[in-house]
């Protein structure tokens, strides 16, 4: 199941709430639990969007347990039968098409110091690449804090997108 992570300034929580609550094809939404995420959570819940919440260091655990790994252990002996093998292949194809979104809102005042902003965003990119298939940044130009973003993040195997 592909995972799209979003790192955003809290200033964009209205836009994020609108985009996320409008997406009916998303399989799972996880909002990183911190003091800056409460406004987004309130707005999502008022739009009948019920995300899971977790501290950032626990997100990989949630993603790992979201796939029903116990089912594969139990059903593995049955895969020798063509009927079960066909069902298993269909389940794998469907899982590859379902999207999980992880949203991480950062502090609103980070843009006051460009170095702190850059450091905080890069730290979160580094931590989130371990479980993401792509990372979308919701930030404005913020004084050129991210002008060398692609060059500075070449070490990661996760594509970065900018909004």
**Average pLDDT rating:** 81
Please bin the fraction of helical residues.
40-55%
Q: Report strand %.
A: 15-25%
Poorly predicted regions: none
- Count of helical stretches: 7
Provide a descriptive summary of the structure in words.
42% of the residues lie in helices and 20% in strands. It is α/β, with parallel strands linked by helices. Helix 1 (13-22) runs parallel beside helix 2 (38-46). The model has no long low-confidence stretch (mean pLDDT 81).
Short structural summary:
It comes from Methanosarcina mazei C16. InterPro entries: DUF1638. The chain has 163 residues and is of the alpha/beta class.
Short key terms for the protein model shown above:
6 strands; DUF1638 domain-containing protein; 20% strand; alpha/beta; DUF1638; six-stranded parallel sheet; 163 residues; single chain
Q: What is the fold's blueprint, element by element?
A:
Layout lengths: L2 E7 L3 H10 L3 E7 L5 H9 L5 E3 L4 H7 L3 H7 L6 H16 L1 E8 L7 H15 L5 E5 L10 H4 L7 E3 L1
Helix pairs in contact: 1-2
């Amino acid at each position: 199941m592909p995972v799209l992570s979003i790192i955003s300034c809290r200033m964009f929580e209205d836009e994020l709430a609108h985009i996320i609550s409008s997406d009916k094809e998303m399989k799972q939404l996880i909002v990183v639990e911190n003091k800056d995420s409460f406004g987004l959570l309130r707005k999502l819940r008022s739009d009948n969007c019920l995300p899971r919440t977790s501290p950032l260091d626990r997100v990989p655990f949630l993603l790992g347990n979201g796939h029903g790994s116990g089912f594969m252990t139990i059903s593995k002996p049955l895969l020798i039968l063509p009927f079960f093998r066909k069902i298993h292949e269909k389940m794998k194809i469907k899982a590859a098409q379902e999207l999980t979104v992880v949203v991480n809102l950062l502090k609103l005042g980070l843009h006051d110091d460009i170095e702190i902003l850059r450091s905080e965003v890069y730290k979160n990119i580094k931590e989130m690449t371990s479980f993401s298939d792509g990372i979308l940044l919701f930030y404005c130009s913020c004084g050129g804090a991210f002008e060398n973003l692609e060059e500075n993040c070449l070490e990661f195997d996760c594509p970065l997108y900018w909004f």
